[in-house]
Design a protein that fits this description.
The protein starts with a helix and ends with a strand. The strands form five sheets. Strands 1, 2, 3, 4, 5, 6 and 7 form a seven-stranded mixed sheet that branches. Strands 11-10-9-14-23-20 form a six-stranded mixed sheet, with helices on one face. It has two domains: about 220 residues, 2-Layer Sandwich (PmbA/TldD fold); about 230 residues, no CATH class. With about 475 residues, the protein is α+β, with helices and mostly antiparallel strands. The radius of gyration is 23 Å and the shape is globular.
Length: about 475
């Protein structure tokens, strides 16, 4: 494939060619039956051309040299047509970290490709049975499997030659419990980069099933947390959601240029001095993070990007174009979901570095508050304002953990929350690898950190 892509580099201006082949498998089990078991395969090449300071893009599912040359022609024509109307021209592109002669695969403990589809279907059916019959109050269950097997070749006219194999499996369990007309739902999910051993390294499918069923049943008789501004301890999954949605997007350089909350604040104290936040293409602290990207889709080696160091904002996430504008090296954050998508600035694995306190020590610092776990959906805006839902709330009184309460919302400004941090746990966990991040196109990402003690506004029942 490399020779075919190189054959269309004619020396006339900047060109980027990205061949992407994807094999995907989706399985969904509900009501004891397999609702979906779909294996898909697609392949094609995306071409970007830079002409007179403007980008043009074209794609082709035909991989013949003639079709690729036609895609190059169409990309250049699109760029030439828009160039006269572009107010801000694209200048030079950052070139530090170009992947030249770079080939990498996905380290895997037990490759998913070695497990037959029939065995994966059986795993989903068996897990469904376990959840559905876990308790007399169980009313329903769903189980899902997803795996993405990607292979990419990236070639540019300024020297990138990269070959990447990337495998990302995901497993999801949902349990519904009911009693006297009331229903409660609980979910557990895990997504990793690697193989079966990576996917179920921390918890087995059976453990995920048992936890989802137990939580759904316990929520039926749980009380409600009190609303108000509270001292809380956030579990790693909630920490991951907060730093991804409410901080990570504000430091993507395209959003910074549009005026996000992080714009113009480099060097400023934006968080507690305890806070060190970064985004990386590899998987620090714990292997198999779901957003691993060894080389991004512009052919840049995906290095660690520091965002906050000792509370100060020190950097943004860049592609080649924005890196040049800011006078820094590209960070390897340009990503495209499929071959016919253009690369966008996206997070990879975003994380808060752990501290030195045990969980009991963090709880000891809470006189009357809560432990929040089970991150769910929510939203955040460019001003770092957020509202998230959490599945599990546990009261903390004078450092002692109480029984499960029903979930609630947490709201605030993410930078204000990080400024209130006065304790970080010593145990790290990746917790956001299942599902997708959306920004015009999906992306597999991950986020995590330790337990964190801070102040946040909770929605609940007035006390």
């Amino acid at each position: 494939m490399l020779a075919t892509l190189e054959s269309v580099l004619d020396g006339a201006g900047f060109l980027e060619l990205r061949m992407h082949e994807r094999r995907a498998l989706r399985i969904h089990v509900e009501e004891g039956r397999v609702d979906a078991a779909m294996g898909t395969h697609q392949a094609g090449v995306g071409v970007r051309a830079l002409v007179d300071g403007a980008w043009g893009f074209a794609a082709s599912a035909d991989l013949s040299p003639a079709a690729l040359r036609d895609a190059v022609r169409r990309a250049r024509a699109a760029a030439a047509a828009t160039a006269p109307h572009r107010a801000a021209k694209v200048g030079a592109l950052g070139s530090a970290g170009l992947a030249r002669g770079y080939s990498v695969g996905t380290p895997a403990r037990g490759p998913v490709s070695a497990v037959p589809v029939e065995a994966k279907v059986e795993l989903c059916l068996r897990t469904w049975e376990r959840v559905r019959h876990a308790h007399a109050h169980m009313r329903g269950a769903e189980v899902g499997w997803l795996e993405l097997n990607d292979e990419k070749w990236i070639v540019t006219s300024d020297g990138v030659r990269a070959h990447v194999v990337d495998v990302k499996p995901e497993f999801r369990v949902s349990a519904v419990a009911g009693f006297e007309g009331e229903l409660q739902t609980a979910q557990e999910a895990v997504g990793k980069t690697g193989g079966m051993g990576d996917l179920f390294h921390a918890e087995s499918a059976e453990e995920l099933a048992d936890k989802a069923a137990r939580t759904a049943v316990d929520l039926l008789r749980a009380g409600y947390p009190a609303a108000g501004n509270r001292r809380v301890v956030l579990a790693p999954d909630v920490v991951g959601l907060l730093i991804h949605e409410a901080i990570g997007h504000t430091v993507e350089a395209d959003f910074v240029l549009s005026g996000s909350a992080a714009a113009g604040r480099l060097g400023q104290l934006v968080a507690s001095p305890l806070v060190n936040l970064a985004d990386s293409g590899d998987s620090p602290y714990e292997p198999g993070a779901g957003g691993c990207v060894p080389v991004d889709d512009e052919g840049i080696i995906a290095r660690r990007a520091d965002i906050i160091r000792e509370g100060r904002l020190v950097g943004y996430l860049h592609n080649r174009e924005t890196a040049e504008k800011f006078g820094v090296a590209p960070t390897g954050n340009a990503r495209a979901y499929e071959y016919d998508n253009t690369p966008l600035i996206r997070m990879r694995n975003t994380y808060l570095e752990p501290g030195r306190q045990t969980l009991p020590e963090l709880l000891d610092g809470v006189e009357d508050g809560y432990l929040l776990a089970g991150a769910r959906n929510g939203q955040a805006d460019a001003n770092a304002e957020f509202m998230f839902a959490v599945q599990e709330v546990y009261p903390v009184k004078k450092g002692k953990l109480g029984s499960l309460l029903r979930g609630c919302t947490m709201t605030g400004n993410a930078f204000d929350v990080l400024r209130s941090v006065d304790g970080l746990g010593d145990q790290f966990s990746w917790r956001l690898g299942s599902g997708f991040c959306g920004k015009g196109q999906p992306a597999k990402v991950d986020a995590g950190g330790p337990h964190l003690r801070c102040q946040v506004l909770l929605g609940g029942r007035e006390s």
